[in-house]
Amino acid sequence: MWLFDHLPPTSPDNGPVSQRTVAILAFDDMEVLDFAGPYEVFNVAGELGEGHPFSVFSVGLTREPAVGRGGFTVLPTYSIEDAPPPDLLLIPGGAGTRALMTNDALLAWVKERAAEVELLLSVCTGALVLGAAGLLERRPATTHHDASDELAAISPTIEVVRGQRFVRSSDTVLTSAGVSAGVDLALHVVQLLAGQETRDRTVTEMEWMWQS
Questions:
Q1: pLDDT at 12 over 70
Q2: pLDDT (tens digit per residue) in 22-67
Q3: Cα angle at 108 between 81 and 176, to 5 degrees?
Q4: What single string gives the DSSP state of each residue in the chain?
Q5: How far is CA 168 from the centre of its chain?
Q6: What is the 3-state secondary structure (H, E, C) of 115-162?
Q7: Residues 40, 180 contacting (CB under 8 angstroms)
């Protein structure tokens, strides 16, 4: 099992950092914080980090507004048909992931992007989408505590990790638990890719109280 807890940054805090694009999927019945929490982390890190290390955009199944839980609405910057290839791709969770699990066009797009991105991230039940796309076979993964059995039912080879905030499922696939865990995962990715100083600036700006 690869637990994604205490890995060192991939670049030194005072070294050069390349700007990376981060695409976050928007869809009907997505969980609000699953989308907005990581969006805020990467956007703030992109503003405050040296060299502006992240640039964030949203991707929808179409360019029509995606209406999440409680009426939270996102107008996607791109659709899956015209989105530029990102460096990082994040799949939020929410009740709407169940429909995505049987959407062949979306699953094909996720699989295609998975072969190209530096990191593929899921929050909450976004892991169900990765599982349905066949990206968690013979790998550890975590999800919202209420969806652990659903994730296990997708394939007997998925090693469901319960009670872990986030897990490194492979060299390029990272899964997190429910809702607020997406912020923790995003902050950890900021540290890995842009360094401790950028993570600390982001935490301070957001007044995020989580302690690693």
A1: no
A2: 999 999 999 999 999 999 999 999 999 999 999 999 999 999 999 9
A3: 100
A4: --B-SSPPPSS-TTS----EEEEEEE-TT--HHHHHHHHHHHHHHHHHSTT--EEEEEEESSSSPEE-GGG-EE--SEETTTPPPPSEEEE--STTHHHHTT-HHHHHHHHHHHTT-SEEEE-TTHHHHHHHTT-STTSEE---GGGHHHHHHH-TT-EEPPS-SEEE-SSSEEEE-STTHHHHHHHHHHHHHH-HHHHHHHHHHHT-----
A5: 12
A6: CCCCEEEECCCHHHHHHHCCCCCCCEECCCHHHHHHHHHHCCCCEECC
A7: no
Structure tokens at 24: 């976050």
Structure tokens at 134: 């066949």
Tens-digit pLDDT profile for residues 137-173:
999 999 999 999 999 999 999 999 999 999 999 999 9
Domains of the chain: 20-201 (3.40.50.880)
Instruction: Yes or no: say if 199 and 166 are a contact pair by the CB < 8 Å rule.
Output: no
Q: How far apart are the first and last CA of the chain?
A: 20
Q: What is the pLDDT of residues 83-94, one digit of tens each?
A: 999 999 999 999
Contact 166, 184 (CB under 8 A): yes
- In angstroms, the CA 190 to CA 70 distance is 29
